[in-house]
Amino acid sequence: MDDIQRFFFGKNTVHSLSEAEYAQSRNYLETLRAVSRLTYMSMYVIDYQLKEFEYVSDNPFFLCGHSPEEVMELGYAFYFKHVSPEDLEMLIKVNEIGFNFFDRIPLAERKNYSISYDFNLLNGKEKILVNHKLTPIFITEEGKIWKALCLVSLSANTAAGNIVLSKAGEDVFWELDLPSAEWHKTEKMKLTDRELQILRYHAQGLSIGEIAERMFVATDTVKFHRRKLFEKLQVKNIAEALAYTTNNKLL
């Protein structure tokens, strides 16, 4: 229990809630259950007042062999059981730095922000690099996150970290340099129409030859644009490119 408390400090601990704050959460879990049936990603909800998981979807990817009920029962202890010690320390540090950033955002804008980062899940002998996104669902009158939605999917990167804060509807984001705890503002990557077209055709399962026919160009032209796209995204293949563009809302 003492280890779990390392995830909580003044800026992310909710001590009490008003009737109006409680009222906003009625029946919202039914919506989440419906969404979880439509997405391949695993979903769960953190309750920062109770310091536990309120909901865990039955998408098996995140569960590491447990049932959703078992993960809910474990709560934060799940991280200590299924995250490597070095990545666990990173999560605790990101948690504190992220909430310090959140505390400086104007209260009216806080629901528009989300944070994304990668860490390794340990599932038996298997080590899986996952991408974890967190965004507020409900915020208290004083501006603290009461409940947050987390989405877990395969990472498009090759190592843990890659900590990014973004605001919905904006073309900029903030990348965290973890050793210095400094955020660096960056322009969101823009893809050309042709690059987006190639990605969409690949997402439909078309081969390079079929894409060339659809675009009325030579196969070498498709290969050229793919190669430039991989360089731009810093990925090795089309699977990584699709994962990156999907996770970063570029496609």
Write the layout of secondary structure elements.
Elements: H1 19-23, H2 28-36, E1 42-47, E2 52-56, H3 68-74, H4 77-82, H5 85-102, E3 113-123, E4 126-139, E5 145-154, E6 161-167, E7 172-177, E8 182-187, H6 193-203, H7 208-215, H8 219-233, H9 238-247
Antiparallel strand pairs: 1-2, 1-5, 3-4, 3-6, 4-5, 6-7, 7-8
Number of helices: 9
Describe the main β-sheet briefly: 8 strands, antiparallel
Beta fraction of the residues? 25-35%
Mean pLDDT reading: 90
Task: Describe the overall structure.
With 251 residues, this protein is an alpha+beta fold. Helices cover 35% and strands 26% of the residues. The chain contains nine helices and eight strands. An eight-stranded antiparallel sheet has the order 2-1-5-4-3-6-7-8, with helices on both faces. Helix 7 crosses helix 8 (219-233) and helix 8 (219-233) crosses helix 9. The protein is globular. The protein starts with 18 loop residues before the first helix and ends with a helix. The model has no long low-confidence stretch (mean pLDDT 90).
Key features of this structure:
single chain, 251 residues, alpha+beta, globular
Provide a compact summary of the structure.
With 251 residues, the chain is an alpha+beta fold. The protein contains 9 helices and 8 strands. It has helices at residues 19-23, 28-36, 68-74, 77-82, 85-102, 193-203, 208-215, 219-233, 238-247; strands at 42-47, 52-56, 113-123, 126-139, 145-154, 161-167, 172-177, 182-187.
